[in-house]
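If you are new to this repository, start here. Below is one unmodified record pulled from the training split, so you can see the exact layout before writing a loader.
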Amino acid sequence: MDAAIFPSATIAEFYRLALLLAGDVYSAQQLLAVCLAETEAKIDQLRSPEHRRCWLAMRMRQRSMEQADDVEPLPSAPRLLREGTSEVENAEILGIEAYILAQRFHHLPEPERSALALFYLDLFDTKEIAQIVSLSIEDLADTLNRARLLLKDGLNAAHENSTAP
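And here is the target side for that same chain:
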């Protein structure tokens, strides 16, 4: 794909979005590849870089919602022990925690999942996020607050399960 159409930094940003929407590396790669191909096929209709970026985000969201019916239940969180761990073990623990975060994020309902992902990845301004997730600015604010609470509750539950004897 021509770098002028999608610079590598943009693709990296959208990969992070795909990971949050899809919940795992393989599904994120598939989601991004399909949506990039669809965007490239429509390039004549998506002339401005801003329009291409918004269209790509909306398409990724639509495709991830289509696949939402196939979501498996969350795995139980592994017990994480930090005391007396080496740097290598700490890196592995951070990887596990990132995986747990991605899984919890992936299991948020829509539009909370998409709105929070777009907000935290700082890909778009608030008006664009509201447009992508089809909400008013006021509803977007409520949705982001609800999403933060749901994610916090999910992470707290995962932490409690991982530290239980």
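Two things worth knowing about this chain: Residues 73-83 have pLDDT under 50 and may be disordered. The domain at 8-72+83-163 is CATH 1.20.140.160 (Butyryl-CoA Dehydrogenase, subunit A; domain 3).
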